[in-house]
Design goal:
Oligomer: single chain
Largest sheet: 5 strands, mixed
Shape: globular
Radius of gyration: 15 Å
Low-confidence stretches: none
Helix content: 25-40%
Number of helices: 5
């Protein structure tokens, strides 16, 4: 049995925060505002995996009013989701994600992001694809006010 899930996340860019995407600290004058490390890429992937397994969304498992998640690395949240998926008997087939960001340029960091995510999920790096795109100066991402990410995840289980 195959199941597909989608995820989307967005966070505002602000001064005084580190920019973390895919578990990678990216040099930039601003970072993403959020209760955790605000890693929109991983948050999107978490939602796509939870959606595929019919386990709700990131807010159900990691509410932003719970102090134990304050400033937590989203990679740690992703490891928890990996365990939830394993408990359902499903396995991850692949993940495809897109980061929507005007700047900074993301391409130099994509391989490290893939390594971080594959390690957290205990899957092969070849099962993860990450792309980045701009919105040609349009919208909140184009105006450098925030960063968004969307993703799809395919999971499977061999039924008895």
């Amino acid at each position: 049995m195959f199941r597909i899930g989608t995820g989307y996340d967005v966070h505002r860019l602000v001064e005084g925060r580190q920019l973390i995407l895919g578990g990678v600290k990216i040099p930039y004058e601003k970072g993403l505002l959020g209760h955790s490390d605000a890693d929109v890429l991983i948050h999107s992937i978490i939602d796509s995996l939870l959606g595929a397994t019919n386990l709700g969304d990131i807010g159900v498992h990691f509410p932003d009013n719970d102090l134990k998640f304050k400033d937590i690395s989203s990679l740690e949240l992703l490891k928890t989701v990996r365990n939830l998926i394993q408990e359902t008997g499903y396995k991850i087939s692949n993940i495809d994600a897109t980061i929507i960001v005007q700047e900074p340029r993301i391409r130099p960091y994509i391989e490290t992001m893939k390594i971080n995510i594959s390690t957290a999920l205990a899957i092969g790096i070849e099962q993860i694809n990450i792309k980045a795109t701009t919105e040609e100066g349009l919208g909140f991402t184009g105006k450098r006010e925030g960063i968004a990410a969307n993703s799809s995840a395919l999971i499977y289980r061999k039924d008895k």
